[in-house]
């Protein structure tokens, strides 16, 4: 059964990115600390085409998150930055390189219509100009029996939550306090949640919730 | 070894109380949902002089939190409400009743000097007008070898964290989204934390952290 889900690292004070995000600092000051736990994991390294890495509960969680994803939805910033690099001439292909780690269709929310961008390894970026519901609908069709992953960032996740499109999500709660930045949950309520699974791991806790209908 | 610690329920979006707190609604709209998991626990009921209740991981956590506390520090709102009931004539004794559940000295942060208020069962409210550091220092002296509990609310906890006075804390993370209210962590950073213990329980996850010096 296909589900719409997301997973994201969040600080103990609720930030999914640090303050002063910029092209040079896409996850803001201190934001990289949110992701430090992931870089040494075997499953994450494999997704980047790298060998080695360690196992354990966090590795299992990431391997699971990467399994059965048929399509991804993301915001334009996650595709690749601010107004400058969005230019068509020369075309900007995002900051994921020639072979992005998605290997599926990726539906990018934007106000700029553009032809789909097919890159190596099965990733095709499809640009959607008519909002989150349309993007998720198209992702569902593309994913078939597999799941739709809301890739982020926080604003795109909030849009999906507010529109009632999310079935479940997993937070990777990192024991840091960023003090400022981009909060994950802003103006999201009226959702009933069920705590589904909690996994303690070195330097992070994985918390999975289901949206109750 | 005496430690300064706090424990508090917090929503998944980081609120320790709902919006529109008032005398009638001291933890704000929806705020009571933060505490529902605690009312049926044996240890909590015992602290209120009630029989019965259930055991389990949450019960163990609350029993542990109540053990070895030698003094408590709290804000004036937690003692008892807004400017009105704070009046001296007739004296207002807070909303904890004739026999409050603390059974130790309780240091109340306030701008209004007042003689200590000794109630039944060993609770004496001591009113401190010279700030969080002085309050914690006096609580430490009173607690001796036992711990100092920062009772709350969020503002008092933030003051203690910013002043570097907290050794460890436990969050009771409740799977609700309040959308608005009083955030637990505001303008708190520059603290290095270590994840110490994670316990999954029905309807809540208990997360314990230590401040690293």
How would you describe what is shown here?
With 213 residues, the first copy, chain A, is an alpha/beta fold. The first copy, chain A, has a single domain, classed as Dihydrofolate Reductase, subunit A, CATH 3.40.430.10. Chain A is built from five helices and eleven strands, in the order E-E-H-H-E-H-E-E-E-H-E-H-E-E-E-E. In chain A, strands 5-6-4-3-7-1-8-11-10 form a nine-stranded mixed beta sheet, with helices on both faces. In chain A, strands 2-9 form a two-stranded antiparallel ribbon. Chain A starts with a strand and ends with a strand. The mean pLDDT of chain A is 92. The A-B interface holds A 12-14, 171, 173, 175-180, 183-185, 187-191, 193-195, 197-198, 200, 203-205, 207, 209 and B 12-14, 171, 173, 175-180, 183-185, 187-191, 193-195, 197-198, 200, 203-205, 207, 209.
Gyration radius over CA of chain A: 17 Å
Pattern of helices and strands of chain A: EEHHEHEEEHEHEEEE
The major beta sheet of chain A can be summarized as: 9 strands, mixed
* Assembly status: homodimer
Query: How large is the share of residues in beta strands of chain A?
Result: 25-35%
The greatest interface here is:
A-B, 30 and 30 residues
CATH secondary-structure class of chain A: Alpha Beta
Offer a quick outline of the entry.
The structure is a homodimer. By secondary structure, chain A is of the alpha/beta class.
